[in-house]
Known about the structure:
Strand content: 15-25%
Distance between the termini: 63 Å
Order of helices and strands: EEEH
Structural class: alpha+beta
Number of domains: 2
Radius of gyration: 24 Å
Number of helices: 1
Amino acid sequence: MAVCVEFDVNGNLVAADPQPATFETCTLVVLSGPEHAANPFVLTVEEGGLIGGAIMLLWGAAFGLRMLRRALDVG
């Protein structure tokens, strides 16, 4: 869970009251739970699709270059 926090007059961090609808206006955002865990295997469907598409594009480019090399090979 993400919480928007700010400094009070004593320099302590306190939760902003009320919490804003979006975190773009927050000075500081504190994360707790799985949001801050850097686990590369926890992906959304969109992120997995982007990675899969990049891999397919790379393999396709390598195959195309290989076929171009074979087509231009005269020996």
